[in-house]
Prior knowledge:
The chain is mainly alpha-helical. The chain has one helix at 5-38.
Amino acid sequence: MTFPFPLLASGFALAAMTLLALRFTAFKRSLIKVRSNRHPPTNTKA
C-alpha cells in the first residue's frame, strides 16, 4: 500500500512537530523541577 507523497510528507511533519512539542514540555518540566528544588523550604514545621 503506497501513500501519495504530500500525505506522507505531512505525516512526517506532524510526527516531527509532536516529538518536538513533547521534548519541549519535558524540558520545561525539568527546568521547573530544578528551579523549585534549588530553594528548599527552611521551616518545615508549622
